[in-house]
Structures are given as C-alpha cells and as structure tokens.
Design a protein that fits this description.
Number of helices: 23
Largest sheet: 7 strands, mixed
Strand content: 5-15%
CATH class of the largest domain: Alpha Beta
Structural class: alpha/beta
Number of strands: 14
Shape: elongated
Distance between the termini: 83 Å
Length: 582
C-alpha cells in the first residue's frame, strides 16, 4: 500500500516576513544600483549610433546598418537568456572591464579596417562590430541585469521577475540609440568631442567614471595609440600622420571636417592631378586641375571628373515648341544639392540668377574654398523638403530651371524623391520650365522603376539618359549607372517625352571645356528607352507604383543592394587605403 508524501507545512507568517526582510536591500543601495544600471544602458545606447558613424567612412552608412539592429536584439537576448552561463565564466567585477573594452574600440577598428577589401561591405561591418560594439553591449546589458537583481520582483510572478529587466533593458538601449542617432548629427564637428573617435573616447571615459578601477591601466596602450598613432583622431598630429601614409598612394588631404551629413574631406591626387570632395564612402564630386601639361593642350579651367555633372547643364539646352525666349540674364534657376558646385557655377557663368539649397554648411564651405564656387548666388542652407514646400506655397512659378542632384553613398534622401516633393518642384517651375534630375541606381532593380514612375507621374514629358555606355551584358550582373532625367512642366504631347528636344550647343555653352564639349549634349546612343507606363505609373500615378511621403519603406529596402554596388565602384575610383584611413 503506497503512502502519499506529507505536504510541506506552511511557514508561519513571521518566518515568511523574516525571509523577505533578509532579501530586502537598503533603499540607498537599491537606488544606487538602479542608477548604475540605467547609466550602463544609456551609454550602451549612445554607443550604437557612434559605432555606426565610425563604420560609415569605410563601408557607407547603409551597408553598416543592414544587420545592426537585428544584432542588437540578439545580443541583448543572449545577455539575459545566457545570464546563468555568463555568471559561471565572467568575473564578478566584469563591469570594470567595460571601460577598458571601450577604450580599445578605436584601435580595434583601425586594425580591422585594413581588411575591409577582404570582408566587403556586407560582412565587414558585422565582423568589426562583433569585435567592438556587440561585446560592449553584451557586457553592459549583462552587468545591468546583475545590478537589477536587487529588485525583488518574484513577489509578482517568476515570469515578471525574469522578463521585466530584460525587456526594460532592451527598450532602454533601443530608445536611447534612436534618440542619439537623431540628435548627434546636429552637433558633429562643433567640437573635438563631437567627432567619431571623440565620441568613442567620451563614452569610454564615462564608463570608467561609472566603475572606477585600477584595471583601467589595461587601456593605456589603446589610449596612447588613439592619440598618437590613429589617423582617425582629431588633431593636427593625426592629419600629419595621415598625410605621411597617403603620400605612398600619391594623395594629400587638404582638409577634413565632421558634419551632419557625414565625414567630409577634400583630397588631391598628386599623380593624376585631380581634386575630390568625399562624404563617408562616396564622392560628391571632383575635378581635373589645370596643370602646365593640360594647359599646353588647351585646358583653361578645372574639368569635372564625372560626365554626369556636365550633362546636368543641358537643362539650358532643352527646346520646346512655341516657348517664349528671354535672355538668360532674366532667368532663374534652383539647384538642390550642391556637391562641388559644377552645375551651379555654369548657370551663374551664363548670367542666370541661381539659388542653391544645400543641407550641409560644410559642403558649401568646401565647395567655396577648394572648388571655386562663385559667390554670386543665393545660398539656402536648409532641408530641401521644407524649402520647396514653403517656396511652392509662397512663390510658385519662380524658376526657369531646376537641377535636382542629391545622390550620395549608394543611396538618396528618399524624401526628395516622393510624389509630393516632385509636385512642389513642378509648382516652382515657370510654364516653360525644365527640370534635370540626377539619379544613380541599378536599372534592374524595382526601386529604380519606382523612382522613375514617380517622376513621370508628375512630369508626363521626360527623356532619360545614362552617363556612360552599359558594360557588356553578364547574366545577373547589376547595371548601376548615373542617369539624368530631363522633364518639362507642360506636356509636350509626345509619348515618353519625345517632344523634348535639345538645341546644338555653342562655343559659349562649352566655355572652353573639354568635358562639356564631350558630354554636355546628351547622346542619342545613351538614351534609355524606359517604358514609363509599365507598372501603372503613368500620368495619374497609381498609389502602388509611386513613392509617397511617409511610405518610403520599399525604396529604403532596395537601397541596400544599390549601396553595395556603389561601394564596389568607389573602391575602383580610389585605393582601399584612402577609404580606410579616412
């Protein structure tokens, strides 16, 4: 006959109260632990966009971000789900090692960046952050969890006790990360602290102050390397060190600045004599310099190194039937996106009243100082979306010409390619106005069709040209190219914009430039026979086939592939070490 186990007698109330009191942490200690945990999570959240900023000059902002958020989620989950395992292998004072790791991050990145050509834009960012930011995040979240163990949540339920700290930590890191990503660009370059390495060192110092320890001496070699041997550091010595290394590749850094759109620098090639403006892992423009050898061949002024910038000036050559003619001195132009100022300088040289809208004041500064941007223009340092919206309401029909050139880094600001933005541009054009839109993309991608359909939904009469002949066809190979779309405000009546014509350029249009002589007039052989009606874009613009403000996710998803293609192209323009050394 089996006997049932006797039930465990319930402890007296006094005994239960005694156990609870034994687990009770003094209020001062409780608040101290919560504060330290919160500080760790806040610093881990700030480190997220700082890590992305540090990767963008080598990999570009889009490739750097592809797996970043997903890796944050996985890392935070590992910190809590593997807390028991980590507790067995990590020392009790692991919190004191976080600052040491943070100080080593700039050095580790500097070393790993030299392998960027081998790892590539898809795996390079993940490999780099796996050795830098993700371990910092793991240790920070784990240490915060240990500190929060003083919160006795078991009185509610075991599930709450296990999940509340994990969920709270993840939400805190993600929230702070998003806030920091939105705020930091506004302050980049305003002080040495607000530079990529400066921010990394500031976070490390804050972590060291949060958990003071003699272990910080382990970070001394990293601090010395960062301040004395790392070209990414903001100092005159770092620039001199960088130029010593660049000399082996026949390049010289003229100036660099951190700014709200990215890491900007002006570089000059001593071997082939050209000057470029760099933004992260992309080029905003460049020009061949006038040398004695080139002057002997007839070059009288700097020439654009990319043919697309000369082709944009063909906005002046568009002819329409029955259009009124007026001298160019009475015409006005709007240029959205400055670059080095090639196109606006040409407009200004022909006496056209030109307004330039540029988001980044450093771009305007570099274009003026190093690329001879004419001062005879109206500069609007502003967000183009706000500027166009306000101007379209207050001064419609203001411009005879509009040049839209905002591409950078394998992507474009998607808000500047929406139906609403193009509608604003149309409102700003005069009755016979012309717009030239530079778009760089892969013609095989749906994202390119989406953008082109959106343009045509507002401007029914358009013609599309690429800047260079396509490469020999290879199955599955991307066809990434710069293209210019010329559109007019009034529908010329021809299918696909066939009513748009170009007058023959004159010597005055060429301005003594070889590049303009070869590329100013769009070539018939480079015209893209794009079927504007395919996909339902058309003049009406079905909502599913055009890009609308607030619904740009589809274009953003396709930008990943375009950014990878663009990364490869940029590595053929400049040596890998030039990109890696910033």
């Amino acid at each position: 006959m089996s006997s049932r186990p006797k039930p465990t007698p319930r402890k007296p109330k006094a005994a239960r109260e005694a156990e609870r009191n034994a687990r009770t942490v003094p209020v001062a200690t409780l608040l101290k632990n919560i504060g330290r945990a919160a500080a760790l999570l806040v610093l881990a959240g700030i480190s997220s966009p700082v890590s992305q900023l540090s990767l963008s000059p080598v990999y570009g902002s889009i490739p750097a971000s592809v797996y970043h958020q997903r890796a944050i989620t996985v890392t935070a989950l590992l910190a809590f789900m593997g807390k028991g395992t980590l507790k067995r292998y990590l020392p009790d004072n692991v919190r004191e090692y976080i600052a040491v790791l943070a100080y080593w991050i700039p050095t580790i990145q500097f070393l790993l960046f030299t392998y960027s050509s081998q790892t590539g834009p898809e795996y390079g960012p993940v490999v780099t952050e796996a050795a830098t930011y993700f371990p910092l995040l793991l240790l920070s979240v784990y240490s915060a969890g240990r500190l929060l163990e003083c919160l006795d949540l078991s009185r509610y339920s075991p599930t709450v006790a296990d999940m509340a700290p994990a969920l709270g930590s993840y939400v805190t890191v993600s929230f702070i990360s998003k806030i920091a990503a939105a705020v930091l660009p506004q302050y980049m370059g305003t002080h040495p602290t607000f530079a990529r390495v400066g921010l990394q060192m500031s976070v490390a110092s804050a972590l060291a102050a949060l958990s003071p320890s003699c272990l910080i001496f382990l970070a001394v070699p990293a601090m010395l390397h960062t301040m004395l041997a790392n070209p990414h550091y903001v100092s005159d010595k770092a620039v001199a060190l960088l130029n010593d290394t660049l000399q082996t590749h026949n390049f010289t850094l003229l100036e660099r600045k951190e700014s709200l759109t990215g890491y900007l620098s002006v570089l000059e090639s001593k071997e082939t004599q050209f000057r470029i403006l760099r933004c992260d892992h992309s080029l905003l423009g460049g020009e061949w310099l006038v040398t004695p050898e080139r002057a002997a061949q007839g070059q009288t002024l700097p020439e654009p190194i990319f043919s697309v910038f000369a082709m944009l000036e063909a906005v002046r050559l568009v002819e329409l039937e029955g259009q009124d003619t007026k001298p160019e001195s009475e015409k006005s132009a709007l240029v959205i996106g400055l670059g080095i100022g090639t196109a606006p300088n040409a407009l200004i040289a022909h006496g056209i009243n030109t307004t330039i809208v540029e988001l980044d004041p450093v771009v305007h500064y570099f274009a003026t100082k190093y690329f001879n941007l004419s001062s005879n223009h109206i500069a609007a340092i502003d967000d183009a979306v706000f500027y166009v919206d306000e101007k379209a309401r207050s001064h419609p029909g203001s411009y005879d010409y509009i040049i839209h050139d905002v591409f950078t880094g394998g992507a474009e600001p998607v808000t500047l390619f929406t139906l609403e933005f193009f509608q604003g541009l149309k409102s700003l054009l005069t009755a016979n106005g012309v717009v030239a839109i530079n778009y760089a993309g892969d013609l095989s991608l749906p994202s390119t069709r989406l953008v082109l359909n959106t343009i045509h939904a507002i401007f029914p009469a358009c013609r599309l040209f690429r800047d260079n002949p396509p490469a020999p066809e290879q199955p599955g190979a991307p066809d990434f190219t710069n293209m210019v779309v010329f559109c007019v405000k009034r529908d010329g009546g021809g299918a696909g914009g066939s009513a748009i014509g170009f007058r023959e350029p004159t010597e005055d249009d060429f301005r003594g430039s070889f590049a303009r002589r070869n590329h100013l007039l769009p070539k018939a052989g480079l015209e893209i026979a794009f079927d504007w009606r395919r996909g339902g874009g058309g003049a009406q613009g079905a909502s599913g086939d055009v890009l609308r403000r607030g619904a740009t996710g589809e274009l953003e998803r396709f930008q990943e592939r375009a950014a990878v293609s663009h990364w490869g192209i940029m590595r053929t323009v400049l040596p890998a070490r030039v990109w890696e050394l910033w």
